[in-house]
Amino acid sequence: MELINQHTKKIMEGCKERARAAGLSFTDESLEYVVTNRDLLELSPKVMIPTLYDYWVHDVEVLREKGKYELYPHNPYETVINTRPPISFYNDNNPDWLNVMIFYHVLAHIDFFQNNLYFRHTWDYDFTGQALSDKRVIAKLRAEKGRWVDYVIEFARGIDNLVDFHGDLADLFSRPEAECSSRLDYYFDVFLQMEKKVSVSEYIKEINRYNECLKSFAEQGEKTFFTEAERRYPELEAHFARSGEAQPDRKRDLLRFILDNSEFLARDENIWMRSVLEIVRKTSIFFQPQIRTKILNEGWASYWHERLFLQDDRIKGHEVDFARVHAGVTSMPRVGMNPYALGMRLFSHIEEQADKGRISFAFQRIMDYDKRKQFDTGSATGQDFIFSVRENLCDYLFLKNYLDQDFLDRHKLFVAGKRLDQQRMVWQYYVKSRKAHDYQQMMLKSLYHPPAITVDQTRGIEGSLHLNHKFEGKQLVQEYIANTMVGIEYLWGGPVHLETSEAQVASAPSSPSRGEELREGEITWQRVLYSMNEKVLTKKKL
């Protein structure tokens, strides 16, 4: 892995100028590396963050990906990570013309990272530096505690999707100033003096650093100061929460609740586990927006690499090459979903609709097909509108608001059904629906949506932890329940109960005749209670 040469860097800087002229907004500083296919395979399990903490699952993933690569060799083009400054990796097989196209794609990603409000909590610090600090903390603990560190990581990662990302994000826009001040008081008056017992010189250095942050970053000075403090002391947030000065208890964030309330983790011999849980939770929070904006993010990048590269004179002589690569990335499959293709076409559709004034109540009231087709107010506000979409939405809102019947008809999309041909004993796919509502529901169901599990403090007795799964039509994966609850029981230090819903088949499915769709038996949902006590799982119906 090495930095790109000056020739390629000059190409990148030229792309930056054209991208900014088109309206994209991003910082001047960026780092670009040339890597091999093998490098990309080794970085992928760490979500392309080279400094992420070591964990045995990463090594297993690397071996698996290398095995797949031996069977199916392929050349990944690029990847970009949301850090300060942004870091991007480029395959060493890319020719110059392809790098121009890829640079536009990467710059659009950076614009998205730095302007979409779901990434707000990532704007004020460098995650690679934070990850390196976390990696060193875990390496030190592993040297002292051995395999127990990996057990704690595994238990924490089993529930790291149950974090209150939206709650943390909301705090950035509504956090009272007084709360920040109490945090500052705790850090200087309690944490440094009574818990860490730092020297006078070190204490004065921290005061000077705080004053410098206020001078340099104004309103963001205190947050920037604490970013560096948390890098040095990963346990700071947990200690502050224990002090009673933290944010109100959130029952939707299971990791946070265990950190704040587990008597097992409060024991002197187990305090080190808090640092591990904080690192796992912090890492999960960082990556939450990327999971929730996959279609929006990739669609935005694909929209701009197509638009900007087609206007770039460096495409001359490579039009066919571009068409082949671009089609491979953004082709719309008949069955399944390509986030690049769907997102790019939806952005183009929204822009055209806004240009004609169709994103309005007046247009929505028109039911006549010919009148809808001819409707055009000439507002020409499409560009401004898609930048607003890029700033404010996630995948769910993107699809819910703008995936309409006009878009479906234009691209001839449909919901595919599956039925069994008993004569040939093969599955047949057929067009099940061309309605926008059905297609939209299919897409929404494919999005990342972790289970809504809350802590019910009114039902936990004698040191037990009672969890309530708010059923939303999807039952939990039963094969994971036992192992996950073992981990929660260990971290909590007592019995754990989980209330959820499971499918009950009222009658056996009837045998379908040839050409008919396989029908499921009538399903009813039954509330059940799982209990884990001393690593023994039991279940009873409620």
Q: How would you characterize the largest beta sheet?
A: 5 strands, mixed
Q: Trace the largest sheet across and list its strands.
A: 7-8-9-10-11
How many distinct folded domains? Answer: 4
How many angstroms separate the termini? 57 Å
Query: Structural class, please?
Result: alpha+beta
**DSSP strand tally:** 11
β-strand percent reads 5-15%
Keywords:
single chain; 542 residues; alpha+beta; 4 domains; 5-stranded mixed sheet; 4-stranded mixed sheet; globular
SSE arrangement:
Elements: E1 2-3, H1 6-22, E2 31-35, H2 37-43, H3 56-71, E3 78-81, E4 87-91, H4 96-115, H5 127-145, H6 148-157, H7 165-174, H8 177-195, H9 200-217, H10 221-232, H11 236-242, H12 254-261, H13 263-266, H14 271-292, H15 294-310, H16 319-330, H17 339-355, H18 361-364, H19 369-374, H20 382-392, H21 395-402, H22 405-411, E5 415-421, E6 426-433, H23 436-445, E7 452-455, E8 465-470, H24 478-492, E9 496-505, E10 523-533, E11 536-541
Parallel strand pairs: 2-4, 8-9
Antiparallel strand pairs: 1-2, 3-4, 5-6, 7-8, 9-10, 10-11
Helix pairs in contact: 1-4, 2-3, 4-15, 5-10, 5-14, 6-14, 6-24, 9-10, 15-17, 17-20
Walk me through this protein's architecture.
The chain is an alpha+beta fold. The chain has four domains: 2-116 and 293-326, no CATH class; 127-291, no CATH class; 331-445, no CATH class; 452-541, no CATH class. It contains 24 helices and eleven strands. It has helices at residues 6-22, 37-43, 56-71, 96-115, 127-145, 148-157, 165-174, 177-195, 200-217, 221-232, 236-242, 254-261, 263-266, 271-292, 294-310, 319-330, 339-355, 361-364, 369-374, 382-392, 395-402, 405-411, 436-445, 478-492, and strands spanning 2-3, 31-35, 78-81, 87-91, 415-421, 426-433, 452-455, 465-470, 496-505, 523-533, 536-541. It has a five-stranded mixed β-sheet with strand order 7-8-9-10-11, with helices on one face. A hairpin with a 5-residue loop joins strand 3 and strand 4. It is globular and about 70 Å long.
